[in-house]
Specification:
Jelly Rolls; 225 residues; 26% strand; three-stranded antiparallel beta sheet; alpha+beta; single chain; signal
Amino acid sequence: MKRAIVFLLLSIVFVYIRQDKAQRSITAGQRIIPVNSHYEGDIIEFVLRSNETGHTHSTIKQTIKRDGPCGNLLSNAHPLKRPCTPPIHYHLKQDEKFDIKQGRLGYILNGMNGTKETNESLFIPKSACHTFWSAGDDDLVVYITLYNDHGMVPGRSADSYFENINGVRRDSPSLIATLQVQIGHDIYRCDLPRLFNSMFSKLFQIVALALGYQIQYVEYTTPVI
């Protein structure tokens, strides 16, 4: 409880000092987008957008090059410190599935480490803490599907999340901007107290929004039909 209150107060102060004035790249409507601005090899491709599935689910294809900053071949960084590795997180309204098409997927699921090989799958139920990374010597190619719950906000489907979180990481890599996008798309960090996620996240969003931090940006977001 005390940690959550301190974090919220520090976040508000930080947001007040640093309003979001990033110069944004325009990637809305693109099928393929880069994961970061420093290395073009790691990409995300939208295989099925929410518009194309009746808003039931979205599927992306993520490629992590073996010799890039997120790969397992040359990187000296711990997998959790690589720029393509999501923070350990959970969803309240979405199940998730990983289908490994090439390479080896390393993952954490509810505190347990594991790997999945080519042609294997991994299912992540709602509320399960998880993350993933490339754990082999080949390029990792993985299809990621997020299934939208009926309680999802229209226009906040998985494709919107991937567009905006990768846009923020490229153009405005701050913790506040990242949290604003994550919370608005049913992504909750496991390194923050769940009390923060349940009680203070909405207040955090209001304060961040008032000072320029959006849940989704027109420069990144493909319009919902």
